[in-house]
Amino acid sequence: MNKDVQQPLEDKLYKALNAPETITDEEREAWGGDPEFMESLQAMLHARRAMMDDSNGSDAHEAFSNFAAQHQATPARHISLWWKAAVAVAAACLAGWWILPQLTAKDSEAADSNTIYHATATGDEGITVTEAGNVIIDKKQARRQKDGMRNIIVNGDTIIYQPLDISKYQVRESTIKVAQGHTAMLVLSDGTKVWLNTQSSLIYPNAFAANQPRQVQLKGEAYFEVAPDAKRPFIVDCGQLQTTVLGTGFNVRNYADSEPCITLEHGSVQVSGHSQQVVLEPHQQVTLANGNRLKVAAADMESALCWRDGLFFFDGKTLREVLIEMGRWYNMDIVVNDYTHLNDRLHFRGERCWELRELVESINIICDVNLSIEGQQLVLE
Known about the structure:
Layout: H1 9-18, H2 25-32, H3 35-53, H4 58-71, H5 76-95, H6 99-112, E1 115-117, E2 127-131, E3 134-138, E4 143-144, E5 152-155, E6 158-161, E7 173-178, E8 184-187, E9 193-196, E10 200-205, E11 214-225, E12 234-237, E13 242-245, E14 249-254, E15 261-266, E16 269-273, E17 276-280, E18 284-289, E19 293-298, H7 301-305, E20 311-318, H8 319-330, E21 333-336, E22 345-351, H9 356-367, E23 371-374, E24 377-380
Parallel strand pairs: 6-8, 11-12, 21-24
Antiparallel strand pairs: 1-21, 2-3, 2-7, 3-4, 5-6, 7-10, 8-9, 9-11, 10-11, 11-14, 12-13, 13-16, 14-15, 15-18, 16-17, 18-19, 20-22, 23-24
Helix pairs in contact: 1-3, 3-4, 4-5
């Protein structure tokens, strides 16, 4: 088995039972070829079903007895914490407490997990900019507050910060938020250009101090064209990873439902996180694999940067990934009732300006699935 998926048996079983949406393709392939894992998972599923179907616990007792009989000869290195947990669960079940309400709660979570993406907003919020906590630009209501706008020019969805004399004016923390169905371009006071993708936010100063690092914080996705300045490195902080540059063009993807990913178009960047550090070359990308390992690979530049040109482009992406991206752009919940095709991979190109109905029809034809629009939900039957 690949060392990347050599996890303790109990960890793999817990993930398979309680967080199947987080299993990677590599793990799925490796686990499917592991007889011990498959046998243990099957036994646990039978036991879990018995406990849910029989409130007096008799079937659960039989299921766990069968499991124990099958695994008594298993070497200690395989049973360890997993076997202790199984015994504790069985005992609690027979005692008539804890396990049934816990499993009921898990079952409810599993039912709710049919929704693989939740819309995050109730309406079209457009683009907003706050400074020191006060809204100074609201593109939905076409509102601009003159206070704090001394060095700001607004042109459509482009917001430009001109250099500010910080000896005369106070440096303030600013935040730009881009709602679903929108993108924005931001020019910072040092000349750095930032293209922000839908449902993204950036925290930045209205002016950068002299001889100090230029630091911003990103949630969501953005492409940075950094103005060169050898004395002031530019740092993008996205929580788990930090990207440090002097002058270059790169994309940072940091949505909550996917692994953080930095893609370098030109120049050079240093990415650090989890006590690791890598330097990217052009057309490389680094992801935070399994939540703790920096993984460098060749980048599909068209797929990584197409959003700047108003496109959907999925090359080898799963239907699940495509649906989540649709949900993010159109602000729709994604509900899956049939998982048969969810991991099918497809090559697909579309326009973000399309009506949702057009995109749904295209997906149905390409994937031979039944995807429909039901109110604020996209439902895969």
